[in-house]
Amino acid sequence: MSGDGGFGEDLIMVDEQLSSSTLRGDSFISPSSPLLMDDLSLGPDTPSTTPGTAQLPSQLAMFGLLDYTVFSAMLAMSALIGVYFAFFAKQKQNTTAEYLMGGKKMGIFPVSMSLIASYISGITLLGMPAEIYVYGTQYWSVLIAILLMSIGCGVFFLPVFYKLQLNTSYEYLQLRFDRRVRLLGSFLYIISTLLYIPIVVYIPALAFSQVTGVNLHLVTPLVCLVCIFYTSLGGMKAVVWTDALQTILMFGGAIVVVVVGTVAVGGIDVVWRRSEMSERIEFFNMDPSPTVRHTFWNIAFGSFFGWITHISVNQGMVQRFLAMPSINKARIMLFIFCVGVMVIVSVSCYTGLLIYATYHDCDRVTTKIIHASDQLLPYFVMDVTGFIPGLPGLFMAGVFSAALSSMSTGLNSMAGVIFEDYIKPRLSGKVSEARASLMMKIICAAIGVFCVCMVFIVENLGGVLQVAYPLNHPLV
To answer: What is the mean pLDDT of residues 157-185?
Structure first.
């Protein structure tokens, strides 16, 4: 999950989603069936009415006025937060510390919410339920990996970075080794993040297009430009507070959908009983074979290394460490982040069981009611909750919020890394704080536009993405 859960887990899901295979067999899907997420086709073969868009069945309820209003309100509030911190806040974003670390005096709650939003992407919210839907609950044991990651990060990494008070995490590599290693580390981070952001935006945009009928190529740049606007102007404070807002929407949308769906199917006991009957409830598969897709060992402990890699030294995480006024508050922030991620992962996993319990006697993919598995959750939302005005809009606002928070964190972090590691050392003389802040805003906007352009060619990035995931691994 960059997290997807976390950056690494998200790219694993993306790699699986980029292989477009068709499910075969009976309408009942057993846990040994081919991965449903493999049907997420990002290529030209996807059945669609518009490029890159496979529409949901026409008999489903579509977005109404209130749904569009809720979604638009999320974008408007995000933009207004950026305007406030750029022009009306007491502390303007005119210094490096303000732009990258929020003046190093930020509160625990907004930063914690920002971390949760940054490392739970739309890929997680859309992909994890499909994973559970097909393969059962073994993946749920990733909660152990998340807990171990938080402990390791708080004990070993947080004290080091907080003591050094570096502008970028890659400065540590220069202190420990030399400048060449620092530049290599930051280069790998920039490349992998540039490849990740278009994917993390594209997949929720695809889901939005499916449930609304709005052209994918229209909604994507519109939403991304809002994100670029508030991230470039407002700096870290705008990113953190919009993330906090978007986290609330993300939790709210997911939980309301789960509650309505659970009531509709007959209760939690019905969900659990139907899942048990299909042998989907499994938490302790102790098979040591590395060829088995999900076991307790490779999920609970193997995933730990992916999480610790993409959390502990990630520039976005380090910036939030240093945004805290004390190391104790940074530890509290990390604890809240851990709990929040575990909750949203659990909600997503339960959603997979809920979708299965709802359609246990007639799988929507094998019966061709929907074209591909990426439509499972959007289909479920419109099918089960579409009769409630505004609820589909709230859900899609939550999914897009997860994407925007990941994008804003990536843009802000890359702006800092590019300036500190590549531009600042090449400038003659001392650079004023105001000039440095302005240059980072320009860099942020430029790489944001680049990422928007990359979204339009994301269908052809499958091979590159398989390389992107390992790029960060040497950094820990």
So the answer is: 92
